[in-house]
User: What shape does this take?
Amino acid sequence: MELSQSHKALNLDANASFGLLPEVLSELREQFPLFLNPSSIHRGGQAARAILDEARSELGDFLGLSKGDRIVFTSGATESNNTALRIPFRAVEKDNAHLVISAVEHPSVLEAALELRSRGIGLSLLRPSGDYTLLPEHLTELVAPKTKLVSVMLANNETGHLYPIAELSAAARNKNPQVLLHTDAVQALGKVPLRFPDCGVDLMSLSAHKIGGLSGIGALIVSENVPHEALLFGGPQEARWRAGTENVVGVLSFGIAVRNLRKSFEQRVLLMRSQRDMFLSSVTSVLKDVRVNSKSHGLPNTLSLTIPNVRADDLVVALDMEGVLISSGAACASGKPEPSHVLMALGLSPEEARSSVRVSFTGMLTEQELQQASAAFTLCVQRMRGEHS
Amino acid sequence: MSTPVGTKNKVAVAMSGGVDSSVAALLLKQQGHDLIGISMQVWDYRGQGGSKSRATCCAPDDFADARKVAGAIDVPYYVFDFENTFRAQVIDTFVSTYQRGMTPNPCVECNNKVKFRELRDRVLGFGFGHVATGHYARIEERSDGFHLLRGVDADKDQSYFLYGLKQHELATTFFPVGHLTKSEVREVARQAGLTTAEKPESQDICFVSGSVQDFLVKLGTARRKGNIITRDGMKIGEHDGIHNFTVGQRRGLGVGGSEQPLYVLELLPEQNLVVVGAKEDLESEGFSIEDPSWLNPQILRGIEAEHFPIRMQAIAQLRHRHAGVRVELQIDSVTSAKARFLEQWATVSPGQAAVFYDLDNVTTLGGGKICPRPHPSSFVMAAGA
Assistant: This one.
């Protein structure tokens, strides 16, 4: 399939990927000759290292990091999440270690946690309460003296729900002052104000392609008191937190995307929110039985919709054929027949979960494109229900 | 279906990743239709430890092939999940048929219930009114309706598996490779540079990657040892489960010491017995069928007008790759029909499909599932005999 076909399509799947920002691409082209190995002593290496330094500083400023906090560039949020979950558990005795995660984490946290459990580490899940939030009181009950790490995402990728990370961290530390806190902030970056010191965590995972950088590049923010850990061994890159020649192109794209975000953050959020709200009101004015699984206080760009009597997988295909891109469940999970564990944790039945789609906005659609998208959504649903010729 | 030149249809092509469906898609694309390619995920290979056998179909590698071909011919491609339907309509029927002492035909169930029914319903939901596959069969529209014909390549003909299609389904189905031979199909693929041109065919049942016995046991069918007996009730051997046998089977019985070759005459699931005998004992005058499905327009009109019994001579094909024998076909009602051998008898395996063709042995009339023989009292033995 020609690329042009996907370019003409309307990206209502921002949470899967924002799409490379044009200015990232043009600046990458300009700086191209500098992409040598940052570890080299010669000027080629120095220039590459300067690129890393600048991006690191850009991201550090944006997040409000203090001097002791470290940015480790990784191959993406999955690697960041896996590294974070490894940190306290390398050399523990089985039965003397415990981990708490939420029940609505991304698979890269959930699967890493399940793998630890299979090796004898205790695991507890913090489940959403009735109004879809995670309560500090519940977390307090789960945290024990043996708990080494608590990992709770800041914003949910499927529903957009925001969780009270500062309160959750405080509650966990109150119960066990030794526990480490990690948050997967991948979906929060670029959509809500995000400052590392305000979260009260020791570790934070981020990803570049959710804000318009390249995919294959992410970061793990590590605060000063976190003991050293690594997934990859070899050279001393990233202060020995992550061996391997740094992905200079990727890091550069991350830095440019963050800089772009800084310049236009409020406007971007405003556009995301207004486009999402207009889409929703347009669709629900015709399709009266569509249910919204996202609370209004959540990510400004995300909608989780349950459409009765419609297979979500088929709707995604139908909309693709109209040039509108959405997803059913998290992008990583698509293609598997199991219904979303996030939606089921919120109390949806398997059938409801299989009829649920995620629509997430970049905020970059034109007015005409937005109308086109909501019209296509409505039409496809009606056609699939046999209500339209 | 002979498409009038210039008619553009929206067609969903079922793509297995094999060369036949690849070429089917290519030909339709060249004819100017609006296409999407769809692979049907019917079986979760991950749960079965992956499919290492190249003899199976629709494993993840096959989807990769289908995707490559779709990309090469510029057709949008998707994988649809059909696991639930497939399990309920095909796999459960497969297992229960064996448990009832018969030999199932899962490809028929899949065609009837999954490929040409559910797939069609789902793609209709986004405006695609036609379905196409890489089957070797032909559809012809004549003055009285649609007809299903054998594929031109007699060796590859798959019309046998398609007897369950209805008129309205024939009207909206394409079999683009039915008028080609297999080697012509491969040649077309080669010329077009399709990666699947030389891909070997899947030989086995698509969801069984080992022996059928192992598959059934894995799904919970117990290995029940029992006796092999003659028609007189004399025990002459033991078996490991009646699902290991098919009526008419001669090899693999594990009994020796008989002057003449022994054949499986009957499987008695309730008593867990395999009854064997001489070839003559296998002979029968004919057989009945259940769950019939007719596609010949004349027959359909007769049934609608309730002009029973409907009688005609036909060629009966009793299993895949069976040459066919002449029978007198008698349709007694909407739900029952029977056939009487006219020239020679043939081995009849309950559970298999019997498909009837016109005396030209090209035009399909319809078919049904072969019923078990009602057995004379000498077969009925006390349990544990």
In short: The interface with chain B takes residues 1-2, 311, 313-314, 317-318, 320-321, 335, 337, 380, 383-384, 386 of chain A (CB under 8 Å). Chain A has a mean pLDDT of 92.
